[in-house]
Amino acid sequence: MNTLRTIGYAICVTLVVTSIFLMLLPSGKMAKIVKFAVHLFLLIAILTPFIGQPIDFSSSAEAFTWEQNETAKSLNELADEQLLRSFDKSLRLQAEAVFKKYEIVPEKIEFSMNVQSDRSIDISKLEILLKGSDKDRCGNAVRELNEMFGVTALLAFTDGT
Predict the structure, then answer these.
(1) Helix, strand or coil for residue 128?
(2) Is 95 exposed, middle or buried (0-12, 13-18, 19+ CB in 10 A)?
(3) In the chain, how many domains are there?
(4) What is the Cα–Cα distance from 72 to 114, expressed in whole angstroms?
(5) How far apart are CA 22 and CA 39, in angstroms?
(6) pLDDT at position 160
(7) How many Å apart are CA 103 and CA 118, to the nearest integer?
(8) Half-sphere exposure in the Cβ direction for 19 (13 Å, CA)
(9) Radius of gyration over alpha carbons of the chain, in Å?
């Protein structure tokens, strides 16, 4: 049944393409030669399914599916990047709020994250750069951040006040 459908599809497509081409054919010296070539094409296209293997239109569909998969893959990668950026910004704001509660202004907050196969985000590292003058006051804030994010924060201090 599938072979019959493929043959019918091939014949219909061939007839449509040939008809359109013949309508666009200009009149003149070359008209008879072009008309002969078009009719030869039509004849070969109609006989091909009966003589040999039917015309395989699925190869072009497979190529389109492959391109579609590549596009979907790149869209997933883009979505992961945007998700990480958004999550990083949210985590940074949460960390800054904790420091603000203890009246500490961090110089820099860095998160290292990975998107897992189940689309969950894993925080692997938290690095915080603080002023040297905040060294004695940052203990409670760092403990709160460690509990909040589930990682041990790596602290660094600047020499300035």
Answers:
(1) strand
(2) buried
(3) 2
(4) 20
(5) 9
(6) 62
(7) 38
(8) 6
(9) 34
Q: Quick one: 96 and 42 in the same domain?
A: no
What is the domain range of residue 18?
2-56
Report which residue type is found at 86.
S
| Token duo for residue 57 | 């239109």
Could you tell me which residues are beta bridge partners of residue 125?
Answer: 112
Question: Quick one: 47 and 112 in the same domain?
Answer: no
The Cα 124–Cα 116 span in angstroms is 12
pLDDT beyond 60 at 98: yes
Instruction: Output the six-digit token pair for 32.
Output: 């008879």
Which structure tokens are listed for 115? 């998107």
pLDDT tens digit string along 36-47?
887 888 787 777
Cα(108)–Cα(31) distance, integer angstroms:
77
108-115 sheet: strands from edge to edge? 108-115, 121-130, 153-157
CATH code, domain carrying 98: 3.30.70
Please compute the mean of the pLDDT values over residues 76-92 and round it to a whole number.
Answer: 85
State the DSSP code for 137.
T
Distance of CA 102 to the CA centre of its chain: 42
pTM passes above 0.85: no
